[in-house]
Each structure stands twice: as structure tokens, then as C-alpha cells.
Design goal:
The protein has 155 residues and is an alpha+beta fold. The chain has one domain. The chain is built from 7 helices and 4 strands; from the N terminus they run αβαααααββαβ.
Amino acid sequence: MDYFDRVCARQNTKIKITNELVSDIWNKRIDLLMRHKIKRLTAFYPAFFKAIKDVDSGHEYTNHDIQKTDYWNFLRRYHKSWQQEPLTDRARRQIKHKFMDGVNLYFDIKLHGMINPLDMITEKGHTCLYRGYRRLVILKVLETKTAKVRYAICQ
């Protein structure tokens, strides 16, 4: 059970599911960050956006290409065991797997639509996007108009 699930389980939390404009969420994405994730996610958004935009344009990443991307560097920077020099083969495979998870999510959403809503928490008057950073980027790249959002609103 993660933080979102614990917030939802509180008696004074109201759950609201709604459709929101992707463009509105995208334009507020930095304001919607949890304070402790600001540095990480301000690096994530442009790196992942570029990688997914390239995939959307038909680019097929090779093992060599992946390692030249900003998203690869982002993944490597934010995982302690992937920061070692030289990078082990195991770590290289793990980063590639994480990279390809994002690419596969893109194709899944493109083919089937977004299944899970973006999860947001509203506490003390501040709303933050808790789950769905990659999905938000993918929806933006695909030029999707609306997205299902699940709010956990703490009273």
C-alpha cells in the first residue's frame, strides 16, 4: 500500500473521478509536483517527452541509441546502483528495461487508450500529481484531448 492508497483509505478523504483536459494538466505539471520530487521531475519531463516524441515519429531505438538519450541519463542519474563507473552489464540491462517500459507503455496507450487514471492528491489546499507522470507525457505526445483523473481530496 503506497501513500495514495493510504490517503484514499482515510475516513475524511473524498474520492472524485473526472475527465480533465490533458492540456490543462500539462500546463500545470510543474505546479502539480510533490515538493520532494520537483528536482527529479523537472529533469524527467523533457527527457521522457523527447524519447517518446521520437518513438511517435517512427524512431526505433537500438541499444546504442538508447544510451545517447537524455532519458537514459535521467534514469541512470536517479538510480543509485546505476551511477557506478564503469556501468555493469546488469545495470545496463536494467536501465534498458526501464527505458523500454516507457516505450511499451506508449504503444499500449496508443493501441488501447489509457486504462488507469492519473492519480492526484489534494491536501491542505495543494493538489499534486502522485501517479501518472509517464502517462501524462504520452497523452501529450499523442495529442489526447482528455484524461481520466482520480482525485483523493483530504478534508
